[in-house]
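User: Before I run my own analysis I want an independent prediction to cross-check against. Here's the chain; please return only the structure tokens and, at the end, one sentence I can use as a sanity check.
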Amino acid sequence: MDIDETTRINLLYNFYHSLLTKKQSRYLDLYYVEDFSLSEISEQLEVSRQAVLDNLHRSVNLLESFERELGLIEKTTEIDDIAEKLQLLVEKKYSGDTELLKLVQRISKINEK
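Assistant: Structure tokens:
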């Protein structure tokens, strides 16, 4: 599954924002979540556009390093894929087994939290 850069950064931010400083989180939130321009952020935070850009680059690199180390997006994607395939298999071959269906539903809901 290929995702564009902004979507990937938003995913990374969703998973790892609590590991960032308040400052890093603020820059990323304004740019990627609130969709502020570099100029708008620089005005609001009273820093140069270059400072905004530098902070965004450092913060994104940090998010990427968290993903390389922890792999939460990769693991979540794998769980979703397995749960989907398991759901189809159970519905097709074991539709009468309510206990098994409940377990599959629990697996599917893990990543919804």
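Sanity check: Residues 74-112 form one domain.
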